[in-house]
Amino acid sequence: MRHNNFFPYFLAFAMCCLVSSSAWSARKQKAPERPLRVACVGNSVTYGYGLAHRERDAYPVRLQAMLDATYGTGRYEVGNFGHSGSTLLSKGHRPYVNLPEFRQAMDFKADWVVIHLGLNDTDPRNWPDWKEEFIPNYRALIDSFCTANPKARILICKMTPIFDRHSRFQSGTRDWHAQIQKAIEQVARGSGAQLIDLNTPLHSRPDLFPDALHPNPEGAQILAKTVYEALTGDHGGLFLPPVYSSGMVLPRNESLLIEGCADARRSIKAILSRDGKVVEKCEAFTYADGSWHIELPEQQAGGPYTLTFTAAPLKPDQYRFYYPEKYPYLLENLTKAKAQTLTIDNLYFGDLWLASGQSNMELRVDQCNTQELDLSDADRLGSRLHLYNMPARARTDAVEWDDSVLRYTNELRHMDFQGWKNASPEAVKSFSAVAFNFGRVLCDSLEDVPIGIICNAVGGSTTESWIDRSTLEWEFPNILRDWRNGDFGQAWARGRMSQNIAHALNKESSAYNILQRHPYDPAYLFEAAIAPLGHLPLKGVLWYQGESNAHNVEIHERLFTLLEQSWRQQFAQRWNSEFHQKHSLPFYIVQLSSLSRPSWPAFRDSQRRLAQTLPDTWMAVTTDVGDAADVHYRTKRPVGERLALLALRHTYGHTLESEGPTPHSAVRGQNHTLVLRFDHADGLTCTRGFEIADENGLFYPADIKIEGKKVLLSSPSVNNPAEVRYGWSGFTDADLRNAQGLPASTFRMDVE
Predict the structure, then answer these.
(1) What is the 3-state secondary structure of 74-125?
(2) What are the C-alpha distances in Å from 22 to residues 50, 155, 206?
(3) Whole-number Å distance between alpha carbons of 102 and 106
(4) Residue 236, class by beta-carbon neighbours within 10 Å (0-12 exposed, 13-18 middle, 19+ buried)?
(5) Domains (ranges, CATH) in the chain?
(6) What distances in angstroms separate CA 427 from CA 376, 381, 415, 495, one per listed residue?
(7) 307-338 pLDDT, tens per residue?
(8) Over the stretch 493-538, which tens digit does the pLDDT of each residue have?
(9) pTM summary value
């Protein structure tokens, strides 16, 4: 089963290994003769190292408060048996089993034992030499607690994260941390202990770890909540990712796995109906971590449908699949809970697309010069086109954000999930002009296929902000470290970030936080705008970004490749493995337009080469609609139309021309001419834009002659052409097109 991370709506799920035994009794339990004892065993994170008031803020103390608030005082007794620097390895530099806290925990004779060890085993004094003993040592520790109390319930924790700022992150800690996590999972499988994932809920919150290792009070609260949920099965009730809501579009003609969260020991039923008649019924059960998934059989395009989810307590004879009777649970509030229901009405089956990037994708219909025509089209589309807008709650304009913005940005609540709306002038005017016009063309070209488009573009955002943290940690860790003051990010983006969060960096401010987050941060927008979508079954991605990375072509080439890799892993909705091997999530990208910036020609050429080399990636050219002085040019209708042509050709298999002239080869001809051959070249026309150079590298404007699918270039200043370039200026009036009026990309080529 795959994990979900729909932050902040519910914490990510961890797969648990469950022990079968006799049936659970559903009758109300009597008050215990003594409090049920919970031993929190661990290292400095459990102890509360770095907390100014650990007696109040350490996670075991917070856990005690949560249990008391739910079940009343006197029902539970939580003991903190953490020791800073302790290792799980018995031959490590500070073995936990040799410490007084271990002996105290044994004497406590806990009913429930929560173990969080392993962080200090990443020390080079420990893991390289003694890693083979980790699993035997862990099993021996578990056996010790079961000897002290044969009925003890054992829960072991995947470790909290260690962030890139840690001094040994790249010298071994990152790698050993990952290896130990796998070993802990293996211990859980082998021992039957319940597994708690303490990594996923905190991995997206580096701001809560001042020293990259120990959580602050807010981080300790998240730890306590995660452990509380694992102990009690109380995960906050029935949830779905926010985009699963009324008015949405789900994929047609393929079975779907819909994932959600509910309290443990719940039966989840899904009923799909239309016109009051049941079409499908499905059932599943929640895991101990609250996660569940239901497979919905494939449906043909159309609607509207109603999809209803119900979570109800399991029947008594079903409890044996979850927890043995020997564990003395006090869960009256869960076993008595009434069924919960979530309903998605006005649901359609069709094709679902994601439009993302920065401000040119974000630019609204009512900001463009085709507003009147676009709104007229919206009025006729109605329920054929469904829009889900996710704008930023605070714009990254040249302002200092106040405390409230700084706070919700840190909490990954920067995006506004506005819900699904059918196309109408009112809904469309504030929606992305590029995305709307893409959807408009698809609706007009695909008969009776509803189209859904989610737009979560953020003005000024960087490529690195849209890539998940794990990918960056393993593939590009240096970009994570002090991005604000480094030189990986474009100076403009780093400056705007510093301006927006200046209030947080002022020591006189109540919001002072040197680790303040910002949407331009590496990984931030993945965590705030992509992860909450879950494993959404997308038809494809529309991507328009690059203005904030155009200063460094080489870095962007690495980053965009990682972005595609990251998103394809996140949205790998094709559960049929054979199908997945043949199909990859397609990316349709928009090339930067014309603007008087010197780095843009090389960047546009780099985008062209990326589209040619990366799998299932195609590019729409926009140099002919740019504005010399305004990065936010207002002619967006043709951009959406060109993206739609690409999708109709490559995703839907329509026979049509979707690309402008594409250079195929450059060879020397007779009389000092250069002969360029093009693909997608029926009806070529061109009057300007080409330059050629000989081996000295000095370029001169070329005379142009068209012969069929060939372009012949010459210049009295160039005798032996060695290079050619086209549209090679920030703002260009180059005009090479084919018969369909589609423009050619900026490019540069060596002569063969």
Answers:
(1) CCEEEEEEECCCCECCCCCCCEHHHCHHHHHHHHHCCCEEEEECCHHHHCCC
(2) 44, 20, 43
(3) 6
(4) middle
(5) 36-232 (3.40.50.1110), 662-750 (2.60.40)
(6) 12, 12, 18, 34
(7) 999 999 887 666 554 444 444 444 555 555 67
(8) 999 999 999 999 999 888 899 999 999 999 999 999 999 999 999 9
(9) 0.93
